[in-house]
Design goal:
two-stranded antiparallel sheet; 6-stranded parallel beta sheet; alpha/beta; Rossmann fold; single chain; 368 residues; 10 strands
Length: 368
């Protein structure tokens, strides 16, 4: 007999206007002209080398990937990210589900970052109407249209709305594709379920985003730069909303994973920067590199010329150029360093605030 499940439709979902947030993007964003705090000599050396590698990678047409945790968005760094992709220095952006949410909330209402402790105690953490409704619907519609996770959200923000197909169109799609394109059939059925369950009107659904200029996903969509999301089921607040449909998230996230891996395949001679993503970034990277290496070996090649800059706040007292430390050394448990150190190529680690690192890199590139 199937296990009993919690009924999300029974939740009391409140509007975002009832939520008190801590970060306001107009006031708290980082301008591209802001000055980075002084780094140590060793830290500045890592920045200088990263800048030099990015310049060469752009000249040779190799990937320049930037993966980051949600705090890079919460810290107001969207303008810096946007400048990096507008000027062609970065060719791929990747984050987790929380990074997607904070970026969207900034673009939609101009503020984000709720009081987790207080709202959990009140049974209200994450249970907000607009975030859960619009982000889940954007992904369900995007999966139906063959878009990735970040791409789906970026399209909604950039276009300031969603096109909702009619039930008749979706039923026809299910019938037409059932025999030869079952995945498209399933995606249409997912969307049909949402249209019926939430009584959605066909046609254009306007979703204004008055702070769109701070939307990194929208900028990436506008510029055609891949922005991929690599979520885990149940990790993010959008999973608590009844609009959530994990099958659609899986379709969109699968596309993002393979897009990410495709850019890793072009990383020999390229640059991979991982900022504050201690779990998602190394885990997705190592699988992507393994697949890319498999294909390269079949061609008689090998990926060895990738350069990786890893940035986080935790201090490391180990010289990672000597390999990984012994198991009784605390640095052994800096999982992201250990994972990237096993990936071949060259790795540099910098303990720094993400704002200082990204500003230093941007200013270094602008000075080239």
């Amino acid at each position: 007999m199937p296990y009993e499940q919690l009924d999300r439709h029974a939740l009391k979902v409140k509007p975002l206007s009832a939520r008190k947030d801590k970060v306001f993007v107009e006031k708290d964003h980082v301008p591209v002209t802001a000055q980075a705090a002084d780094l140590s000599a060793a830290g500045q050396a890592v920045v200088t080398e990263t800048v030099e590698r990015i310049v060469v990678a752009r000249q040779t047409g190799h990937s320049r990937m930037l993966t980051f945790g949600a705090h890079a968005i919460k810290n107001g760094l969207a303008p810096v990210f946007i400048k990096l992709i507008e000027e062609g220095w970065v060719t791929h952006l990747a984050t987790n589900g929380a990074g997607i949410i904070h970026d969207w909330e900034f673009a939609y209402q101009g503020h984000s970052s709720e009081d987790v402790r207080g709202n959990v105690a009140q049974g209200q953490f994450g249970i907000w109407e607009e975030t859960g409704f619009y982000l889940n619907l954007a992904i369900i519609v995007g999966a139906y249209r063959g878009l990735g996770y970040g791409e789906s959200v970026g399209a909604m923000v950039q276009n300031e709305g969603l096109e909702i197909p009619s039930e008749r169109t979706l039923l026809k799609d299910i019938e037409v594709h059932a025999k030869n394109e079952p995945l498209q059939t399933a995606a249409a059925a997912d969307l049909l379920h949402s249209v019926r369950r939430f009584d959605l009107n066909e046609g254009w659904m306007a979703v204004p985003h008055p702070f769109k200029r701070f939307g990194l996903q929208a900028a990436a969509f506008r510029l055609g730069v891949p922005f991929t999301s690599h979520p885990m089921i149940g990790h993010d607040i959008i999973y608590v909303h009844p609009m959530n449909h994990c099958a659609a998230i899986g379709r969109a996230a699968e596309r993002d994973f393979l897009t990410f891996a495709n850019n890793v395949a072009n990383l020999d001679g390229g640059v991979y920067m991982s900022i504050g993503s201690a779990v998602m970034s190394p885990m997705v990277f190592e699988k992507s590199l393994s697949m890319s290496q498999n294909l390269a070996i079949q061609r008689g090649e090998h990926i060895d010329g990738h350069f990786m800059t890893i940035v986080d706040l935790a201090e490391s007292h180990w010289d990672w150029s000597q390999g990984e430390p012994p198991i009784d050394n605390p640095d052994y448990y800096l999982r992201y360093n250990k994972s990237f150190n096993r990936m071949g190529g060259e790795m540099r680690y910098l303990s720094a605030d993400n704002r200082d690192f990204l500003l230093a890199v941007l200013h270094g590139l602008e000075a080239v």
